[in-house]
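Researcher: Next entry in the queue.
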Amino acid sequence: MSTGQDFLTYVYAAVRPTEALRGLLNDVHGIDRAPVTLLTEASDAVAPAPSGTPAAPAPSDAAPDVLAFVVSPVPRGDFDEAALKEHFEDLRWLENVARAHHDVVQAVAARATVLPLRMATVYQDDSRARGALVRQRHVFATRLAQLDAHTEYGVKIYLPAASDPAAPTAAAPTAAAPSADAPPADQDGAEPLSPGKAYLRRRGIQHHARERVYQQAQEAARTVEAIAARYTSERVRHAPQSGALTGPRENVLNDAYLVPDRNADEFRAAVTQATQDFPDVLVEVTGPWAPYSFAMPAAEDPSPGDAGDVREPAP
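Model: Structure for this entry, 315 residues:
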């Protein structure tokens, strides 16, 4: 609960408050190890009861129209507007906050339907946060109902690391050093290969091999999409990842799916089985996750021509 001038109210998620959730939060800590509590629409944040003290009455599990924010206090000096602008350039700080935010949301998701809010959602105090909860309650309640008994899973497709175009390959060996007995020749033996022609030949072979891998990735994407049509409710297409997140491989597809819990095992098994037919690409299924990608209703689906779309690697 945030009451002092030196603290802001940080909101992790919207939920329906229940007795089980209140009990869980007794053992959950947020950013800077701060206690995590429920802030309801009509009262102050419900703090964990001290040891040995009877718990205050909690909202009924049978009251789906009652909502709460999952909150903790955070230092104003780290989370006011000016501080956030500076901290967003600090990758270590961002990583620590993102991990704490994720840990709270995942803990809540284990016991209740959760609507994750964007990282660094802060209000001046509990009263301001409560006002936001009241103003947006219809949107939150509607989306929570749509997320009931659903979980997020990710599907990513990676191409193998591109080889150095100047390096020799088994399919295109380097030209042998010229000699009187065996001059280097092209494939039909008509004339020797110069170093420049040998290089271009290797480039051509590698380019065609890369195209074949890319075509396989497209087929894998279409296969995943066909499976998803049977087992999932919604899809969000994220931009492919790059850099340290992917390592030497190239991520060409990064989709999130909202999966009914009753279908989760079959969805994972079907994707894993079907994508074994594409040995030159890596298809990775991640999750279960809290529904970060589905906090708000999905945008209009892409046109049919976008089905199975994979971003082609740069030449």
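Model: The longest helix spans residues 195-231.
Researcher: Noted, moving on.
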